[in-house]
Amino acid sequence: MQPKINIRNKRARFEYELLEQYNAGIVLGGTEIKSIRLGKAQITESFCEFSEQGELFIVNMQVDEYSHGSHYNHKPKALRKLLLQKRELKKLHREVKNSGLTIVPLQLYISDKGIAKLNIALAKGKKLYDKREALKERDTKKDLDRIKKSFNS
Fold it and tell me: How far is the C-alpha of 86 from the C-alpha of 126, rounded, in Å?
């Protein structure tokens, strides 16, 4: 049994307000999927953009080279095509073009069938005061949990 691979983009929820989420497949080569199955990938600094043909690509996704690969190994930061249904692609393209929203990856995982999937979200950038508010809420929640724990003990 293979361990669960679940690579998250923790900064996405802090930096952006997430509007809609989608699951997309990724076009990968042999050494890329092997490297992802070993957990050697990062999506923290990556984002998605459309090509001139209307295809969606993930940019800046780091997939480390496979350790047992030969000279046929992949490039670590290559563009990788995302697979979505045509109507979803059209909707995303329209939203990005008209309202200036961005598409950010949230989670890279291996499905039950052994296929690499990427959870992406249509997102709107947060302002600085929104980020401060999120930090303040997190701190108060920690304090409340600490008080509840000491009260129950």
Answer: 29
Domains, the chain, in order of start with CATH, read 6-126 (2.40.280.10)
Query: Rounded CA gap, 121 and 46, in Å?
Result: 12
**Cα–Cα distance, 121 to 84 (Å, whole number):** 13
pLDDT 10s per residue in the chain (153 long)? 456 778 888 888 888 888 999 999 999 888 888 888 888 888 988 999 999 998 999 999 888 887 777 777 777 788 899 999 999 999 999 999 888 889 999 999 998 888 899 999 999 888 877 778 888 888 999 988 888 888 886
Residue 134 is encoded by which pair of tokens?
């999120």
* pTM for the full predicted model: 0.78
Is the Cβ–Cβ distance between 62 and 77 less than 8 Å?
Answer: yes
Contact between 35 and 26 under an 8 Å Cβ cutoff? The reply is: no
Q: What does the block give as tokens for 110?
A: 């291996």
